[in-house]
């Protein structure tokens, strides 16, 4: 995928945030389909920004345990509350009783609910002036939980979830003080 505002050329360096008024948000499309695309992506500004964001998050939790206390801002708490809601659907959509070779097909119903509610989830998290960004944020959120067709989950899905967080950071929603909580509370 092209990485949301992470790929915007309007950001000159890691410290500069996106100017919200200058953004025209569009739905991201999958563009990495072969080795040539991978090679191109790994030298792009989007890749550099995303890996730098991951490095910053990593640095914020050096020598910390998941159980260590950390500052949780109002926005981080909204994300956590939304994740709690998403996870509560597991109890509402129980596994199908039939034996299945790979995963449980009830996962498809769970993903469908996530996709149907993604806009509402974002509206609950984001301040109103950021609602236009929902079209770009949604695929990263929904892609962060696995693939409903293949009923699988892997590192690409984790990267999608981190990209979702990174996009919100680039919109200046998360600050450096949020980094530890993004790792120790949100990502875990």
Automatic annotation (TrEMBL):
Its main location: cytoplasm. Keywords: Cytoplasm, Isomerase, Rotamase. InterPro entries: Phstyr_phstse_ac (IPR004327), PTPA_sf (IPR037218). GO terms for biological process: mitotic spindle organization. Its EC number is 5.2.1.8. One of its GO terms (cellular component) is nucleus. SUPFAM superfamilies: PTPA-like. The keyword Cytoplasm applies. GO terms for molecular function: peptidyl-prolyl cis-trans isomerase activity; protein tyrosine phosphatase activator activity. PPIases accelerate the folding of proteins. It catalyzes the cis-trans isomerization of proline imidic peptide bonds in oligopeptides. It catalyses: [protein]-peptidylproline (omega=180) = [protein]-peptidylproline (omega=0). Belongs to the PTPA-type PPIase family. It is found in: Cytoplasm. It comes from the Eukaryota. This is Serine/threonine-protein phosphatase 2A activator.
């Amino acid at each position: 995928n092209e990485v949301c505002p992470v790929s915007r050329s309007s950001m000159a360096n890691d410290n500069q945030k996106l100017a919200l008024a200058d953004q025209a948000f569009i739905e991201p499309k999958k563009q990495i389909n072969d080795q040539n695309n991978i090679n191109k992506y790994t030298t792009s500004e989007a890749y550099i920004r995303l890996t730098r964001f991951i490095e910053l998050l990593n640095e914020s939790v050096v020598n910390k345990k998941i159980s260590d206390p950390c500052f949780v801002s109002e926005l981080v708490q909204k994300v956590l509350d939304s994740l709690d809601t998403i996870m509560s659907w597991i109890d509402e959509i129980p596994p199908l009783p039939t034996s299945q070779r790979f995963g449980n097909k009830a996962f498809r119903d769970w993903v469908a609910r996530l996709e149907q509610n993604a806009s509402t989830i974002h509206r609950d998290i984001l301040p109103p002036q950021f609602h236009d960004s929902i079209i770009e944020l949604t695929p990263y959120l929904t892609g962060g939980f696995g693939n409903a067709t293949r009923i699988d989950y892997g590192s690409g899905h984790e990267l999608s979830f981190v990209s979702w967080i990174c996009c919100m950071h680039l919109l200046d929603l998360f600050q450096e003080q949020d980094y530890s909580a993004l790792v120790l509370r949100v990502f875990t």
